[in-house]
Amino acid sequence: MGKMGGSKHLTRHAAPAFWPILRKEWRWAVKPSPGPHSIERCLPLLIIVRDILGYAKTAREARKIIAQGHIKVDGKIRRDYKYPVGLMDVLEIIKIKKFFRVVPYPVKYMVLHEISPEEAEYKLVRIENKTTVKGGHIQLNTHDGRNILIKVSDPTNPEEDVYKTFDVLKISIPDQQTLDHYKFEIGSIAIVTDGRNVGRVGRIVEVATMFKRRRNIVTLEDKNGERFQTIQDYIFVIGKDKPEISLPEGAW
């Protein structure tokens, strides 16, 4: 992957390899706006509308569709054709009432998986960091750039603080209410978000501790009983006993 930072422009050669664009037909690709996902882990709205969903033949047509407010991401209308859409985001095509979730997929890295209107009312977010803020309350920072505040009644004994990094929250969208909490622990169901096992789903059976927690070696077991390994940084918990989101056929 070529250098992408420090410029307003992005060549197709330097664009992430999983973007479904022709590399030699044109020189330039749309560069995602700064937002909740990094360039290496997102798809710009224009690429989704034109190249993935096929709702437009040209960039001009795609920009017009987006500017007219036909697309929602996580329950909010997005008119920026450069808006970065990433892991677990929910995309809604308002006029035809179609819903998609961005999920990891073998080889392709990320795909849009069509979901029901009921499932489009929530998403999963992974806790990347947590801090104590004024008043002793807890702020959770998630993988998609959200800051979720956990109110604490007694800062000296914060019973409400049951959250750890790498745990996952199920939240409603767009109002961001916490619906459930899935811990990163033995027995949880998880999906791999990167590496050679990207898109594989399994139950966590072992965690080998390394010097850095993000580099811990996690062993998972898939539905066929086959075991595979990846690092903890690539693990995204998606349920306790079963996946809380629908997945592409054959994933679980």
Question: Helix and strand string, N-terminal first?
Answer: EEEHHEEEEEEEEEEEEEEEE
Instruction: Please tally the β strands and state the result.
Output: 19
Low-confidence stretches: none
Share of residues in strands: 35-45%
What is the overall silhouette? Answer: globular
Going by helix content, strand content and strand pairing, the class is mainly beta
Quaternary structure state of the chains depicted = single chain
Radius of gyration: 19 Å
Instruction: Count the DSSP helices.
Output: 2
Task: Tell me what the structure shows.
The chain has helices at residues 45-52, 59-67; strands at 10-11, 28-29, 42-44, 71-73, 76-77, 84-86, 90-93, 98-105, 109-115, 122-132, 138-142, 147-150, 168-172, 178-182, 189-192, 201-208, 217-221, 227-231, 235-239. The chain is mainly beta and 252 residues long. Strands 5-4-7-8-9 form a five-stranded antiparallel sheet, with no helix packed on it. Strand 11 (138-142) and strand 12 form a beta hairpin. Helix 1 (45-52) crosses helix 2 (59-67). The model has no long low-confidence stretch (mean pLDDT 94).
